[in-house]
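Exercise: predict the fold of this chain.
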Amino acid sequence: MLVFFYVVVGATALERLAELVVSARNARWSFARGGVETGRGHFPAMVALHTGLLVACVVEVNVADRPFVPWVGWPAFVLVVASQALRWWCITSLGPRWNTRVIVVPGLPWVDRGPYRWIAQHPGQRWFRHPNYVAVVVEGFALPLVHSCWTTALVFTVLNAVLLLRFRLPAEERALDALPRT
């Protein structure tokens, strides 16, 4: 099962690279239309944290000799796959407006398709304005647990919560609040 875990972590790393390609293309699209970037200060920490998650999974499983525990590993794997599905649903729903950075094109209305349609229907439900981060949170604890990397799951979850709640989500909220509602 260790090889399977390496494949899952490797596939996640490739998925991240695909995100960066999509993000760079979408950033060019946004900036060409007058896009404004905010929240740049936390971006390097976010990149380091997400890179660290992948590295820590491989290091912990080897250094701590973590076993595969089927009753934890298989449900965790299902959550990893589900989080990827949600992430790509968000990316395709936002189209060229999705980015790993916080870039808003002034004058564009709120997106009201895909998982974002619930937000458009319930604008006061701020807790669900960011379904992509639901995917990030789930993947962050589930990926390490596929092969019992408890320490990585715990440390990433805590650090990710600090990064999301103190920096990323406030930056996104300020950017979204500037968009017109249709």
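Check your answer against the key: The chain has six helices and two strands.
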